[in-house]
Amino acid sequence: MKIHDISVKIEKNMMKYYSLRDVIHTFERDYSKGDNMSLSSISMQMHLGTHLDSPYHYIKEGKRIDEIPLEKFCGKVQVIEINEKEIKAEDIKTKGIKCDKLLFKTPYSKDLNNKNKDASLSYFSEDAADYLADTNVDLIGIDSFSIDRSGAKEKYVHKKILGAGKIALEGINLYDIDEGFYYLYAFPLNIKGAEGAPCRAVLIEGEIL
Fold first, then answer.
1. Sign, Cα dihedral of 75, 205, 186, 136
2. Average pLDDT of 131-157?
3. d(CA 174, CA 161)
4. How many degrees, rounded to 5, is the angle at CA 116 between CA 19 and CA 86?
5. Cα angle vertex 160, ends 135, 185, to 5°?
6. Residue 100's domain is classified under what CATH number?
7. DSSP states along 33-89
8. Per residue in 61-102, pLDDT tens?
9. Which domain holds residue 111?
């Protein structure tokens, strides 16, 4: 059994969606200040780094992150590699859906791994969103920080996928992950009423107990 950490490290000047604020990590007490302990606080938006979007993020009547059963955040997952930054319905149909959880690896994984902040984000086309919304897939992940095209005003993809009751997992680093089947564990922080939450996402390769 091998564990792959596909989470982005939370740190100052990290890779992120262009409109989000940087994380603020403050050591309120620390040995370097002469204290006998270390105590820090963190301030960040829910959608910084590797995170989950619940339907409530764009759907007023949708479930919030703490209302979703935990089994939705773990289970067998199919990693699909797409060689373009736009993921189209035809790409997904060609690969074939074999699990109810899908992670999409695109060229952005290399940008993310190399911390190329000038790189354009990958995203799902509208026809891909339409197609996925009508499947039994319950979790859709992408290496990019948004399932929509960067700067998209209408957020069609978010509304279509989240409106179908599905969960989006964004900001996963799949650079060292081969296409295939794994076990995913991506549990959100248990934040009451939140529209999303950071998570530590890992893939398990091989047999698990």
1. negative
2. 97
3. 21
4. 75
5. 60
6. 3.50.30.50
7. GT-SS-EEEEE--TTSSSEEE-GGGT-TTSPPGGGS-GGGGEEEEEEEE-SSSEE-H
8. 999 999 999 999 999 999 999 999 999 999 999 999 999 999
9. 2-9+45-205
